[in-house]
Write a structure and sequence with these properties.
The protein is mainly β. Residues 1-22, 107-112, 364-370 and 678-682 have low confidence and may be disordered.
């Protein structure tokens, strides 16, 4: 297969400042991402008309999602009988945009999408680390207009706390020339290019910024010139995920005042290439009684749209067609795979096929790499720092760096640093882990998480080499007044933890061997929550998260304090109302890694599986509060980071033994709420 794109030059994002190393030694950081190891997404397609014949389009390598069928002539300048697919992939530890061309060997195959088992694949990286001078960022929602790729990237820091880094860019693939289409200081989501290629619609806050929403972002729909971003206008108040039917009609979703997510249509006049804002008319398309969202329209056939749905009584989202003439839904994916989540439909240029992504599950396709990983390498933006994702919460390393403890609800597990030797060391319902510096003991919190001050939660120490799970632990706290997040001192004598025993969650320090009975004193005091403490390697500081500047509001800043209660300092806060949580000192004590909403939200939450906080990214900062650097770029909830005392080379992904558990992730929890109880939003035409 020959392309008219003769070369793909390195794309230089000139607006980036040079990346200077924050850390000078070799370091390794591990963290967790809720559900991510079970996603195993591939892109599939079904014909819009019966009979159903599902075809897998991507290669089973890592996670592949948010596809786009480019017009057949976009790449070669002429119609092409082969199937072309552009999509996002996370192989090799970072987000990339790939082009796959499926070469048909069967005579007479239709250009629409007729893939035989004898097809071969030609694969090309359109946008990746190499095309961004090695700079790591999230890439998303690609569309191709001629030789110009339109997509989301998070490579530019807006310089404002709690602001999303997402912006729309256009890269000319034959030259590598890249232009930012989103104005500086603005965050755009879910770009969609009109059939003519002249206009691009996005979901955006505009200048008002993110308000902290974690379900529906409260965005509006803006439209601008695809060529250079000019002529930007807001055409719809309250809407997301735009999709064009033609250059004067687009569909979008919003959550309505009756509690249901529904799809709407907006029609308007385009005069002289510009939208007449006063002519915009919106209308609700899908009825109440079910959730319908992430619409995909077709310029070739305007009689239907494809939508993702969640119907009452179902735990799964499915792709359905909605007939705009008869006002009826038609199942696509439910008859094929009823107990699987299906995401974000898109339509082929001739409207004959509907694409989407889902977990490939138990298959025999072959080449399934990166599925069900207990350890996964993630591309680090910092020289000398390796990143890995652990399939479990609250990972922590033994003092010699050879073993990792983590929580896999409801138990505590330990494995070797290379992912081998996985063993359950406690069947208690637990959260948080921290190794003793001197003994083969792991501390954890036994009891329910996200609980009130009076809930029974206690600190226990676990002898990780004792295989008798009923007797290998010792309870260190008394009374169970939400005692949680233990962290031992480097001399092995003390443990700092948070407790709600006073009616407020404050920090306490107790004897590491005998618990409260061996000695206890209060470190912080006040009508607020101090939590998630971590002791520095030199024993001089304890870093922790606190809402003391706005108690009860849900916002947390990062502070540090001496173990004797003196020297309180704020390290960082994530803007007004923001969160900085789960801090952890580096082995040399000079840096702190933590999770935060400092970078806002990177995608519409409804386009992903469930995340309690769909904004967490991993950051690292100097312990004096300077030198903030972002480490992870994705639209998932990254959290509970930890530092390894030894460098781990980013060379191997480790699969779960016995195949692991495929596709065990949940849909957005807030779609389960009865509409009568869901938050209200105005759904009248605006």
């Amino acid at each position: 297969m020959k392309f008219s794109i003769s070369c793909f030059l390195v794309i230089n994002f000139l607006l980036l400042s040079p990346l200077f190393p924050l850390l000078h030694a070799l370091d390794s950081i591990s963290f967790t991402t809720l559900g991510r190891s079970s996603y195993a997404f591939d892109i599939f397609a079904l014909p819009a008309a019966a009979p159903p014949q599902e075809i897998r389009l991507t290669d089973g390598n890592s996670v592949n999602f948010n596809g786009h069928f480019p017009p057949p002539a976009s790449l070669s300048g002429r119609p092409d009988p082969n199937t072309q697919l552009i999509y996002v992939t996370e192989r090799n530890g970072s987000s990339k945009i790939y082009l796959d061309v499926l070469l048909h060997t069967r005579a007479g195959s239709r250009a629409a999408l007729e893939v035989s088992t004898e097809s071969t694949r030609s694969q090309l990286v359109l946008i990746g680390d190499e095309q961004t001078n090695g700079r790591v960022s999230m890439k998303d929602r690609p569309s191709l207009v001629g030789h110009n790729l339109i997509y989301i990237s998070t490579h530019e820091d807006p310089g404002k706390p709690r602001s999303s880094w997402t912006a729309v860019y256009s890269t000319e693939l034959t030259t590598g020339s890249t232009r930012r289409l989103t104005p500086q200081g603005i965050a755009d989501y879910s770009p969609a290019v009109s059939p003519s290629g002249l206009l691009t619609a996005v979901a955006s806050y505009g200048e008002k910024g993110w308000s902290g929403d974690v379900e529906e972002l409260g965005t509006d729909i803006y439209v601008f010139s695809t060529r250079d971003g000019s002529g930007r206008v807001r055409i719809i108040e309250h809407g997301g995920w735009p999709s064009w039917a033609d250059d004067s009609t687009l569909y979008f979703h919003r959550r309505c005042e009756d509690g249901w997510w529904s799809v709407f249509v907006a029609s308007f006049h385009v005069i002289g290439g510009e939208i007449d804002v006063d002519s915009v008319v919106t209308r609700r398309v899908t009825p109440p009684g079910l959730h319908a969202f992430t619409p995909a329209a077709s310029a070739a056939n305007k009689s239907f749209i494809a939508v993702a749905t969640r119907r009452p009584g179902s735990d799964y989202r499915h792709i359905e067609l909605y007939d705009l003439v008869s006002n009826k839904f038609y199942d696509l994916t439910r008859p094929i795979s009823p107990n699987t989540h299906h995401f974000n439909p898109f339509v082929s240029p001739d409207s004959g096929w509907i694409g989407y992504h889902r977990c490939r599950g138990e298959t025999s396709y072959g080449n399934e790499n990166g599925n069900d990983l207990v350890l996964e390498d993630v591309r680090s933006p910092l020289p000398g720092v390796s990143l890995s994702r652990v399939d479990g919460s609250f990972p922590s390393y033994s003092p010699d760096g050879q073993r990792v403890a983590y929580v896999k609800f409801p138990g505590v597990y330990v494995m070797n640093r290379d992912g081998s030797g996985i063993r359950e060391v406690s069947n208690l319902y637990a959260f948080a882990t921290s190794w003793d510096w001197k003994r083969k003991v792991v501390y954890t919190s036994a009891g329910p998480d996200f609980a009130s001050e009076s809930t029974k939660v206690d600190i226990v120490s676990i002898n990780v080499d004792d295989e008798d799970l009923s007797h290998n632990y010792k309870t260190l706290t008394k009374g169970g007044a939400n005692n949680a997040f233990p962290s031992p001192s480097p001399d092995g004598k003390w443990v700092v933890f948070r407790s709600g025993r006073s009616g407020h969650k404050n920090l306490y320090i107790m004897d590491a061997f005998d618990g409260e009975e061996g000695g206890l004193y209060r470190l912080t005091e006040g009508p607020w929550s101090d939590t998630m403490g971590n002791w520095s390697p030199d024993g001089e500081w304890i870093v922790f998260a606190s809402d003391r500047e706005d108690p009860g509001a849900g916002s947390f800043e990062m502070f540090k304090i001496h173990p004797n209660g003196t020297g309180l300092q704020k390290v960082i806060q994530s803007g007004s109302g923001g969160r900085t949580n789960h801090p952890w000192f580096s082995p040399d004590g000079k840096h702190i890694v933590f999770t935060t909403d400092y970078a806002g939200v990177s995608a519409e939450p409804i386009s992903n599986p469930h995340h309690y906080q769909p904004y967490g990214e991993i950051f690292v900062i100097n312990s004096d509060g300077s030198g903030l650097q972002r480490l992870t770029h994705n639209s998932y909830e990254d959290g509970t980071p930890t530092w390894s005392p030894k460098y781990i080379s980013p060379t191997t992904n480790v699969e779960w033994p016995y195949g692991g558990s495929k596709c065990l992730f949940e849909d957005c929890h807030w779609l389960n709420i009865p509409p009568t109880l869901a938050s209200k939003r105005q759904c009248a035409a605006k």
